[in-house]
């Protein structure tokens, strides 16, 4: 529930209620966790897709480039949202029926927990995946997630944003392929997340499934509750859920509770480039304690002056 700001001095904050506590949502301290799309420079890439490109429109006596004598800049772009950077997808990614990403959001703001996990070699866990794991795989396990967040706390969240460790800026331009395969969730990990109340899952790798998984996308099917191998949208499918992949969470964003604004274009497609934005929260009780202390000091100073 969003309320009016506490005071005019906090005109860049609003008050939100979460699990019976009041927090100030600091609108002036927004942090984008999208990877900037630089069309003429390095960019992340997955699965060998063509790089995203932008070029000036040309026709007759018009050129959409002021550097070439044009009256204004007008560019056409080409890209593969699933492979060229930060993107959000709906269940339409795996079913025949339309569930457009542009219509996916029921609320512009929701709670989001940021957590950091270290993928482990598949050979070091008893957790599984379908198809079978190989020793070269690196996976995010249910055990690693449960060490960071309890099921009860998970159920309170509208979204989860996962940062893998080690965390370095190379993620913003990494080209994933046969020799650079990203980590992914074990079956147990995605089932644990799927059994919660979260609506939005955000990760800093290109896919919640293994890169070469024989086209099964087992984790996607589990998260959206679509039977394995099926492309039919049933009444039990969790169509309100989205998956956002290839985010980048800077190290100055600490693990913990935030408010998320998942910004999406109104594309009538299964996926689109997206810009998730995190807002830090301040416990109102901390603010009120500081305010009371300040008032008490001012009152004492006035008494001493008399």
Structure notes:
The structure is a single chain. This protein has 306 residues and is an alpha+beta fold. Mean pLDDT is 91; it is low at 1-10 and 291-295. It has helices at residues 142-148, 151-156, 187-194, 218-224, 284-305, and strands at 2-3, 13-18, 21-26, 31-32, 53-56, 58-59, 62-63, 75-78, 87-89, 110-117, 120-121, 138-140, 159-164, 184-185, 200-203, 242-245, 256-263, 271-273, 275-283. The longest helix is centred in the C-terminal third of the chain and has 22 residues, at 284-305. It contains 5 helices and 19 strands. It starts with a strand and ends with a helix. It folds into 2 domains: 30-37 and 84-284, Glucose Oxidase, domain 1; 48-81, no CATH class. β15, α4 (218-224) and β16 (242-245) form a beta-alpha-beta unit.
How many individual helices? 5
CATH architecture name of the largest domain? 3-Layer(bba) Sandwich
Head-to-tail CA distance between termini: 45 Å
- CATH C-level class of the largest domain is Alpha Beta
Return the CATH topology of the largest domain: Glucose Oxidase, domain 1
User: What's the number of domains?
Assistant: 2
Which word captures the global form? globular
What are the SSEs and their pairings?
Layout lengths: L1 E2 L9 E6 L2 E6 L4 E2 L20 E4 L1 E2 L2 E2 L11 E4 L8 E3 L20 E8 L2 E2 L16 E3 L1 H7 L2 H6 L2 E6 L19 E2 L1 H8 L5 E4 L14 H7 L17 E4 L10 E8 L7 E3 L1 E9 H22 L1
Parallel strand pairs: 10-13, 12-14, 13-15, 15-16
Antiparallel strand pairs: 1-2, 2-3, 3-19, 4-19, 5-8, 6-7, 9-16, 9-18, 10-17, 11-12, 17-19
């Amino acid at each position: 529930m969003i309320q009016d700001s506490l005071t005019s001095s906090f005109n860049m904050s609003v008050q939100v209620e979460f699990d019976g506590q009041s927090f100030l949502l600091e609108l002036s301290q927004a942090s984008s966790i999208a990877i900037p799309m630089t069309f003429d420079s390095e960019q992340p890439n997955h699965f060998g897709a063509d790089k995203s490109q932008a070029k000036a429109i040309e026709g007759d006596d018009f050129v959409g480039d002021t550097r070439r004598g044009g009256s204004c800049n007008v560019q056409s772009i080409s890209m593969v949202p699933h492979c060229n950077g930060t993107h959000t997808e709906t269940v339409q990614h795996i079913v025949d029926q339309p569930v457009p990403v542009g219509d996916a959001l029921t609320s512009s703001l929701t709670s989001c927990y940021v957590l950091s996990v270290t993928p482990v070699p598949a050979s070091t866990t008893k957790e599984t995946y379908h198809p079978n794991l190989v020793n070269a795989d690196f996976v995010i396990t249910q055990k690693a997630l449960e060490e960071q967040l309890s099921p009860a706390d998970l159920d309170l969240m509208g979204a989860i944003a996962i940062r893998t460790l080690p965390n370095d800026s190379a993620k913003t331009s990494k080209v994933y392929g046969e020799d650079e395969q990203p980590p992914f969730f074990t079956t147990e990990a995605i089932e644990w997340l799927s059994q919660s109340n979260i609506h939005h899952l955000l990760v800093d790798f290109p896919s919640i499934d293994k890169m070469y998984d024989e086209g099964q996308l087992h984790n996607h099917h589990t998260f959206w509750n679509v039977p394995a191998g099926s492309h039919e949208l049933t009444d039990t499918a969790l169509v309100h859920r989205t998956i956002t992949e290839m985010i980048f969470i800077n190290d100055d964003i600490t693990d913990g509770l935030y408010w998320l604004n998942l910004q999406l274009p109104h594309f009538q497609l299964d996926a689109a480039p997206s810009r998730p934005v995190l807002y830090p929260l301040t416990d109102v009780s901390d603010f009120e304690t500081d305010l009371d202390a300040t008032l008490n000091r001012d009152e004492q100073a006035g008494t001493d002056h008399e």
